[in-house]
Amino acid sequence: MSTHESLRIVVTGATGNVGTSVVEALSEAPDVACVLGLARRLPKLSIPGVAWGTVDLSRDDSPGVLDKHLAGADAVIHLAWRFQPTRDPVVTWQSNVLGSIRVFEATARAGVPVLVHASSVGAYSPGPKDEPGVDEEWPTHGWPDAAYCREKSYLERVLDTFELRHPEIRVVRMRPGFLFKEQAASEQRRIFAGHHVPGVLLRPDLLPFVPDLEGLRFQILHTDDAAQAYRAAVVTDVRGAFNLAAEPVIDAQQLGDLLDAKVVRVPAPLMRSALTAAWHARAVPASPHLFDAVLRLPVLDCGRAHDVLGWQPTRTAQEALLSFLRGVRRGTGLETTPLAGKQCGGRQAQWGPG
Q: What superfamily would CATH give domain 4-351?
């Protein structure tokens, strides 16, 4: 790798929730000279030190485009991911799995010395919900009934083989919990709740109760904090996987306290049946299989990220969740196609007029 003062970083999926935070963090880093953000559609964002390019990873001709973009790069951060349509897993497989393999292979052809891949807590096999949680050695077989977990898990196996074939490439895998920020809230509402749930309805006084489900314990991280971990992975001589999450672990009681709502015990099968009916009626886009996976996700031990990367989140899990809820109610977004909201506000002045 070249000296830190002249690093050239390529980021795929640069216009999404994680991508916009990562390119901003890199643009402000003194050890990064320039950033190339890749996405299917060019954004209306102007960030000092950041250039933009287009590539559709689901297309058979994308390797040629990637080869041109990756030439001379010092690191590739692969974030591109497609969550929908959940009713057509072939489409997401083509973008997420085959597209990722194209990025990995192009990284090797271009001789890029560092590959940082966005894996997920969803890659892990079902595990304990108690703290201190599982470390990075926990099996990554996912929950096979959920396409998201199945695809993340499959790519873990692809990277196992990739590392054996290319030991000269330093491969880092990030496995964060749920990532939230205000500017991505509109996108996440569309992905998981659909267009039939107006953001203004997500007010504490309009929520009758918070369901307390067996297994409902999960971890959250503010996307900007995750971005700092990605930056550290590029400039630090590390390999392997890193769990990323903020404290505390979120459960029904935590949600009830945040929303000032009553917590009511609800049988998981009853909630699952309701979600299944809504999904089949096309009232919500999120598959009930993902609901099954969430109830089985293990709690993460993030000690390795703290000790090896020197990384610590600056916001609590509650702060990240409140940021998301604020963004949903306000319809906040950014001027990228994935993150477009009812209004583009929040950090607009910081990012520039586009």
A: NAD(P)-binding Rossmann-like Domain (3.40.50.720)
